UniProtKB/TrEMBL annotation:
Bilayer-spanning residue ranges: 157-178
Protein name: Uncharacterized protein
UniProtKB keywords: Membrane, Signal, Transmembrane, Transmembrane helix
Signal peptide interval: 1-19
Length: 186
């Protein structure tokens, strides 16, 4: 009887170990990321040449720019950011290794709640590229009215629930088999 339970338990564990999803491990096109509900507005975008990760914080749009293939930081490049026809240059900060847009009129437009389509023009060495991203900025009440961030994606919870139901079903079968009376001789 214990052997049956151990066998059924050992069959269930590998199924639950692979119960996750919602991840895209491809490298075809990197979609622009939108901000999390709680926290500072963030962007992420990439092309075959450059990758930009940025956030709106402390009165500036802070940008980290790397070469996509090598992850080498882009230092002393020329960066221009455009939102709704308004343009601003990002200055390179050699002490932090990042770029920052601190134009107050630009930041005021960017800080308004909503989705902002950004276009980045990056020139470094012999390479020039355009990158697009969407920055989502919530209003101050947005975080309070939004649902709490989940610890697990919905697909993981669904697979976990199915795994739990399967475990209970297999346990019930094991108990029923253990309680079955053996048939007496043929």
């Amino acid at each position: 009887m214990k052997a049956i339970r151990l066998l059924l338990l050992s069959l269930m564990v590998p199924v639950l170990a692979f119960a996750h999803g919602g991840e895209d491990h491809s490298h075809d096109e990197v979609p622009s990321a939108q901000t999390a509900i709680a926290g500072e507005p963030r962007i992420e975008t990439a092309t075959e040449t450059f990758e930009i990760v940025g956030r709106l914080q402390h009165g500036e749009l802070s940008l980290m720019i790397d070469r996509y293939e090598t992850n080498e930081p882009v230092l002393d490049g020329q960066v221009e950011v455009e939102v709704n026809g308004q343009k601003a240059n990002a200055r390179f900060h050699s002490d932090h290794g990042n770029y920052a847009v601190d134009d107050q009129a630009f930041l005021k437009a960017l800080a308004k709640p909503g989705m902002h389509a950004l276009v980045f023009t990056v020139a470094a060495g012999n390479d020039t590229d355009l990158l697009e991203a969407t920055l989502t900025v919530g209003d101050e009440g947005h975080a309070a009215t939004a649902p709490a961030a989940r610890r697990f994606p919905l697909s993981t919870a669904a697979v976990g629930g199915v795994g739990l139901v399967l475990a209970l079903l297999l346990s019930a079968i094991a108990i029923a088999l253990a309680r079955r009376k053996p048939s007496i001789g043929n």
